[in-house]
Amino acid sequence: MGTDGQLSSLVDLIANATKVVEAHYQKSSKPFVPSLDDIEPHPFDNSVLDKELRNAIQTIEGACAQLAATVARPGHTLVNVFETSCLNVVATFKIPDILEEKPAGMHISEIGKVTGLDERKIGRILRLLASKHCFREVSKNVFTNNRLSIQLLSNNPISSISLHFTDECAKSGVLLSETLADPEWGPSRSPYQCPFNRYTKYPKTLFDYYEGIGSPEAAMRGARFGIGMVGWGNAIEAGAVISEFPWAELGEGGVVCDVGGGIGNISMQLAHKYPWLKLILQDLPERIQQARNEIWPKECPLAIQEDRVQFKPIDFFNESPVKDCDAYYLKNIIHDWPDADCIRILSHIKNAMGPHSRVLIQEYILQYANRVTDGESKFQQAPEPLLPNYGAGRIRQYNLDIDMMNMLNSEERTVDEFIKLGEAAGLHFTKVWDIGELGVIEFRLP
To answer: The O-methyltransferase dimerisation domain covers which part of the protein (predicted)?
Structure first.
C-alpha cells in the first residue's frame, strides 16, 4: 500500500495545527511563541492549556513523528533507539517473529502464551511502541508488524544492534552520573574506568569482555555485537563509502587492509563490487575466527575461493597491520579509544605504510551547535532557523558520542581533533570526504 496523499495530509495537519498554536499565543500576555533560545518563562509553560491548544500541540508532535517515520529508511529510524526497555523486550522475546506468523494481527493473550509473558504487560509495551509507529494495533489488544517493527525480526542484524544498545549499553548508561561523580573515575580517560566497567564489574575493556573468555554471556554478547554492526552499518548507510569513494585509484590488485573490521561487513561489500581488489581483514582472534568460519563462507564464498581475502588476527595496540598495503581502512575504530590509544593505533599503521599508502578513517565527524560564518565552517551549515548541525536531524552521532563515553571512555571527534591525532602519529592530513551520514578522513605519509 502506497502513501499517495498521506504525506500531504500530514503536512496539512501540521500547518493547520501551527496556526491554532500561533493564534493562542497571540492572545496571551506574551503574544509570541518563544524561541528555543528564549530562557525566560512563558505563561503557558506551567498553566493548564486550553483543550484546543493542547490538541493542536499533540497533532504537531504526532504528525511530525509520523511524517519522519514514513519518509525515512526503516533502519535509519530504528537505530535512533527509543523506549529502550520496551524495545529490548520485543527483540529479546522475538515478538516480531511471532507476529509474522499472523500478518492480520495477534491478540496479546496469544502473544503471552507463546512468550510466557504476562499478556497485559506485553500489551502495554506494544502499545507504547505502536504509539511511536513501531508495530500497529489493528484492533483492541491485537497487534501486527509494520514497516519499522519488521526490522526487528531476529534474522535482521538490526535486531542484534538494537539488543546491544538496549542491553549492555543501556544498563551501563544508567551509571553515568555515578561514574562522573567518582573522584577517581570521573576525570579518567581510561577504558577500564567507565560506566560499563561499573555495571559488569569487568576490569578490562568492552572488547576484551566480548572475547568471552570464561563467560558464555560475554561471548554471546560479543557474537551478537559482531552481527549487530552489520545492521548498524546498514542503518547509518556506512556502505556509501563503497560507491562514493574512488577505490579505482588503488589500481588493479590494490590491497585494502580493513583494520579492526570485525566480521568484515565493508570488506564483503568491497569484495562484491570490486573483484580486482585484494582484501585483508584484521581484528581480534575471536572475530576473525567468526568471520573466516561462519560469515564469509555464507555471505562471500567466491572471495575465499579466489584467494582475494586474507584473515589475520591483530592486536592493533601492540602490533602493526600487514605491511605496504595501498589503503588502511578503519571504520568506527578511532572513536572507540581515548587520544593516547588512538595515537598508538595510528603510529603502528604508519610503521606499516609504504610511500603510496593512505589511511582512511570512516566515522562520524561532529559539528558544533553554534552558527558561524560560512567561511569558518568546514561543513555546509543547515539553513536557518535550523541549528547549523541540523539538530535532531543528526542527533544519532551525538547519542553515539555519549554511548562511547559510557562504554569505553572514548568519544566522537571533530575534524580538528582528527587532524591533531594524525599529526601526533606522524601522519599528514590530506582530505575530508563527505560520504553519507559518516565522513572519511584521509591521511598519508608526510
So the answer is: 84-154
DSSP state for residue 359 in the 8-state scheme: E
Q: Does the annotation count 164 as an active-site position?
A: no
Look up residue 300 and give its DSSP letter. -
For domain 76-152, give its CATH number from 3.30.450.40, 1.10.10.10, 3.40.50.10320, 3.30.160.20: 1.10.10.10
Superfamily of domain 246-365+413-444: Vaccinia Virus protein VP39 (3.40.50.150)
Out of 133, 164, 335, 348, the active site residue is: 335
Low-confidence ranges of the chain (pLDDT < 70): 1-4, 36-37, 39, 46, 48, 78-82, 383, 385-387
Q: Where are the domains of the chain?
A: 6-71, 76-152, 157-233, 246-365+413-444
Chain segment 85-102, per-residue pLDDT in tens: 999 999 999 999 999 999
> In this structure, which amino acid lies at residue 228?
G
Q: How far is CA 27 from the centre of its chain?
A: 44
> What integer pLDDT is reported at residue 244 of this predicted model?
86
- Cα–Cα–Cα angle for 400, 406, 410, nearest 5°? 70
Domain pair 76-152 / 246-365+413-444, same fold: no
- The answer to whether 267 and 238 have CB atoms below 8 angstroms apart is no
Check if the beta carbon of residue 90 is closer than 8 Å to that of residue 125. Answer: yes
Residue that the C-alpha cell 533502519 belongs to: 75
Each residue of 102-138: pLDDT tens digit? 999 999 999 999 999 999 999 999 999 999 889 999 9
